[in-house]
Amino acid sequence: MDTIGPMGRPEAWSELEGIYADLERELSTLRPLCRQSSKCCRFKEYGHQLWTTSAELDYLVEHEGLPVASGSESGTCPYLKDGLCGVRDHRMLGCRIYFCDPAYASAMAPLYEKYHARIKELHRRHGLSYEYAEFLTAVDRRLGAQS
Ligand code: SF4
Predict the structure, then answer these.
(1) Looking at the 3D structure of the chain, how many domains does it have?
(2) Taking CB atoms and a 6 Å cutoff, what residues make up the pocket around ligand 1?
């Protein structure tokens, strides 16, 4: 299996963008509420974790670069800027699907499963190494690899 190289994978990325677009369409009918509290990006404070796949992290880093510092100590996403996502167009499935709206809670897990399965399949079809990892740990690993 290949890993994604520095030149990127335009076909894989365009398929990933299609998956994200399908999700947006589904979300537009479910209409979960976002109060822009940024709770979902302050992992430690709110006691949750963000997990992501290797291709999604490659897609994010290729388009936005690695953050200047790790978020592990603060437990906050290093891409959070002034209370808003600084990498909105290239954020991962977990970021796109999570809403703290209680009316949406029961819809979230099946939706996540469905789209995560499509992204996993994308790895297979494009011959990409599949890894599913906690986001801050995965970012730290990449920061460590470049130093
Ligand atoms: S990538 Fe954006 S939406 Fe996702 S946790 Fe970080 S700041 Fe929040």
Answers:
(1) 1
(2) 41, 50, 77, 79-80, 85, 87, 91, 95
Pocket test for ligand 1, best of 48, 57, 82, 87 (most atoms within 8 A of CB): 87
Q: Is residue 94 within 8 Å of 40, Cβ to Cβ? A: no
Domain housing 106: 10-146
**Residue 6 pLDDT class (50, 70, 90 cuts):** very low
* pTM confidence score: 0.91
In a domain? residue 22: yes
Nearest protein CA to atom 5 of ligand 1, as residue: 41
Asked whether residue 18 is assigned to any structural domain, the reply reads yes
Domain-embedded: residue 119:
yes
For residues 94 and 135, the answer to whether their CB atoms sit within 8 Å is yes
For the chain, helix (H) and strand (E) counts, in that order, are: 6, 4
Asked whether residue 5 is domain-assigned, the answer is no
Q: In the chain, what is the straight-line distance between the N-terminal and C-terminal CA atoms, in Å?
A: 26
Distance separating alpha carbons of residues 136 and 52, to the nearest angstrom: 10
